[in-house]
Automatic annotation (TrEMBL):
It holds the Pfam family Response_reg. This is Response regulator rcp1. The keyword Ligase does not apply. The modification 4-aspartylphosphate is found at residue 71. The lineage of its organism: Bacteria, Pseudomonadati, Planctomycetota, Planctomycetia, Planctomycetales. SMART domains: REC. Gene3D superfamilies: 3.40.50.2300.
Length: 150
């Protein structure tokens, strides 16, 4: 087989929408430990997330994410508003969104699924449990599921 015949492998593009610095570091570390080729992009609130997704301002040349990891409780525009905006935008609604939050409130769970979240995960407080959750997300979304091509 010639080099031009081998399929090129591109990194999986992950957008992490999270305001808590400790959770950002933990998520990045857990994803790095999985040894799956990925690029993780981080924005700190829903306003920045929508600029990233619409490739506005400093995000003009960013790639389209293959998966979004979304926290609900953030400043400026929270994850609930952001999820609604993503899933009602014809250009963005096919991007899978995994809600990862500390909220165990049943109304948050219900509302997230009504807004077409693809998964809802309550963040564990224990670091090992958190790493396990990220491993499971990684295995499911990048080994089992067929994602739409960009």
């Amino acid at each position: 087989m010639k080099p031009q015949d081998t399929p090129s492998v591109r990194p999986i593009q992950i957008l992490l929408i999270e305001d808590d610095l400790a959770d950002i570091k933990l998520t990045k570390r857990a994803l790095e430990n999985e040894r799956i080729l990925n690029d993780i992009h981080v924005v700190r609130d829903g306003v920045e997330a929508m600029q990233f997704l619409r490739r506005e301002e400093e995000y003009e040349n960013v790639p389209r994410p293959d998966l979004i990891l979304l926290d609900l409780n953030m400043p400026r525009k929270d994850g609930r508003e952001t999820l609604h905006e993503i899933k009602t935008d014809p250009e963005l609604k096919t991007i899978p969104v995994v809600v990862m939050t500390t909220s165990e409130d049943e109304s948050d769970v219900s509302r997230s699924y009504l807004e077409h979240a693809n998964s809802y995960i309550t963040k564990p407080v224990d670091m090992e449990q958190f790493k396990h959750v990220v491993r499971v997300i990684n295995a499911y979304w990048f080994s089992v599921v067929k994602l739409p091509s960009n």
